[in-house]
Amino acid sequence: MKPMRRVVTGHSPAGLSIVTHNGPPAKSVALPQIPGTVFHEIWSTASTPATVGNGPDPTEGPLLLPPPKGGTRVRIVDIPPDTEDFLRNGAQRMHDAFAGIGDSSASTVRADSPHPLMHRTESVDYGVVLSGAMTLVLDDGVVELQQGDVVVQRGTNHAWANRSGETCRMMFVLIDGQYDDGVTPAR
């Protein structure tokens, strides 16, 4: 995969626009439970409206799956192809992986789940396929995705299955959310 590059802007003491970072993201984390999966943390905000300033890089600190309460998170994820071993034995590793990224309750996998990566977060997520192909797995159905496709994932139970044989790179923008009173997600 092409190396990641992140360009962050800010303001000089005179108020001029400047580049404050131009290079790889400060944090790229490989998930040992899913060899080949790498989370590249791009940016996050802690509130809405977001604070605009020259504060510290919000991606430093522990890797966390969900966005901050009232905030956002942008990440790019390299997702390797599913393997037979992972499909057969991945459920327990996924519980451990979600716990390791700060959201053990996100994993919703059960014995009858359609994929061992089934999970849900109380957020609205925009997923963009940057390169490769991906399969969105839902409780009831799948959608094949190609480069340039965009998914608006609204707090639903889902998994990302890479059935293409090649690593897929996706960008995710996660926005903290709250379930509508009329929505009772099944577990």
TrEMBL record:
Q: Which Gene3D superfamilies match?
A: Jelly Rolls (2.60.120.10)
Disordered, as annotated region: 50-72
Which InterPro entries does the record cross-reference, listed alphabetically? Cupin_2, OryJ/VirC-like, RmlC-like_jellyroll, RmlC_Cupin_sf
Q: Which Pfam families match?
A: Cupin_2
Q: Which domain of life is it from?
A: Bacteria
Q: Which residues form the Cupin type-2 domain?
A: 117-173
What is this protein called in UniProt?
Answer: Cupin domain-containing protein
